Amino acid sequence: MLNFNAKPMHVYSTQPQSLRPDLPAAPVLTANGLWKSYGKHTVVQDVSFTLHPGEVLGLLGPNGAGKTTTVEMLYGAVKPSRGYVQIGDAQVHLQPKRARSCLGVVTQEDNLDLEFRVLQNLIHFAHHYRIVGQAARQRAGEVLAQVNLENHAKYRISQLSGGMKRRLVLARALLNHPQVIFLDEPTTGLDPDARQDFWKVVTDLKQQGCGIVLTTHYMDEAYRLCDRLLLLQQGQIIDQGTPDELIERTIGQEVIEIEGIPEPILQELLAHANAWLRPFGSGYLLSLPNPADADEIWSRLAATHPRRLTRRAANLEDVFLRLTGSALS
Asked: What is the pLDDT of residues 112-139, one digit of tens each?
C-alpha cells in the first residue's frame, strides 16, 4: 500500500557549511544554533547556516514554520533564546550598532514617511547612519539610481505605484552600503511587471557581492533568485540545497496530476511502482522518480480514462507538498 503521509528522510549536518565551492571561504553571515522560545512554546529550533558574498539564500516554509522569527533574529529585532548571529566581525546581539552598520532590511511593510517626497525620505533616513548634509543627498541620489527611481526623486509617496514603493524601501536599505540585505516577502501584492523590476535590482545586488536572505511565498521567485534554499517546518530545517537539488532529490523529474479515478484503482495500478501519491485538489498528485517507469505508468493511467490527466515537470511547490504535507501559502 502507498502511504499518503510518508515523508522522505534526509540526513545532513545542521552545522554551517557552503554548498557552493565557487563561493569565497569567509561568510558574511553565520547563524549558529539559533533557538527561540516564548515560555514553553519553541518556535525556532537549532537553526544554523552561513551566507556568502554574492549568494541569495531563501528561507521557505508554510505559515507558522518560523521564517519571520528566524529572520528577525538574524538582523537583531528578536533576541535568540540560544545561539548567536555573526555579521562581518560583529555579533548581532552583543554589538548591535556595529552589526546594523553592515546590514539592510526590507520588511513586509513599506513604512515610508508620507510627509517627505522620495529623495527627502532617503536623506532623512540617512541620518540614522550619520550620513548628513551633502553626503546624504549624494548617497540618496546614488541609491535612487541603483533601483531605477532617479526620475521620481520629487514625487510624493502617494504618487508611487506599489512596485516603486518597494524599490524605494530597498533603496533605503542600501544607504549604508550593507554587506547583507534581508528581504522579507518583498514582492507580495505586486503585479508581474513590478516583480520583474524588483528581481532585476536583486540580481544586480547579488552580482555586486551583496549577501541576500530572502523569504517568499512565490515559488517562481525562489527558483529564479535563490542559489540555495533552507526548508523550514515547525521551526526546524528539514532540508536544504539548491532548488534543482531539492526537486530532483525529493520528487524526481516529473509528476502526474489525475482526477476522476478512485483511490483503490490508483493504489492497484501503482502497487509495484516507486511512486509517491497524495490527494491534490479534487484529484491526486503522483511523482515519477524513476524516468524509466514514467511512460508505462502514464499508459496505465490513461487506459482508465480519467476526467483529467496531466504530466508536467516537478517544481518547488511539489517539494513542499511532500516534505511538509501542505502547499506554501
From this structure: 999 999 999 999 999 999 999 999 999 9
Q: Please state the separation of Cα 265 from the chain's center in Å.
A: 38
Beta strands in 144-201 (DSSP E): 180-184
Query: Using CA atoms, how far apart are residues 223 and 226, in angstroms rounded to an integer?
Result: 6
Single pTM value for the model: 0.85
Q: Which three cell numbers stand for residue 97?
A: 550598532
Angle at 239 between CA 235 and CA 245, to 5 degrees: 150
Count CA atoms within 13 Å of residue 221 on its CB side: 28
The torsion defined by the Cα of 27, 207, 213 and 246, in degrees rounded to 10, comes to -90
3-state DSSP call for residue 177?
coil
Distance CA 227, CA 53 (A): 12
Q: Check residue 109 and report its DSSP letter.
A: S
- Tell me the C-alpha distance between 99 and 31, whole Å: 13
- Please give the backbone phi and psi of residue 204, each rounded to the nearest 5 degrees, phi first: -60, -40
| Whole-number Å distance between alpha carbons of 82 and 93 | 11
- DSSP letter, residue 161: -
- How many helices and strands, by DSSP H and E, does the chain display? 11, 14
List beta partners, residue 156.
117
Contact of 230 with 60, CB cutoff 8 Å: yes
Run of H or E residues at 222: helix 219-225
Percent of the chain scoring above 90 in pLDDT: 70
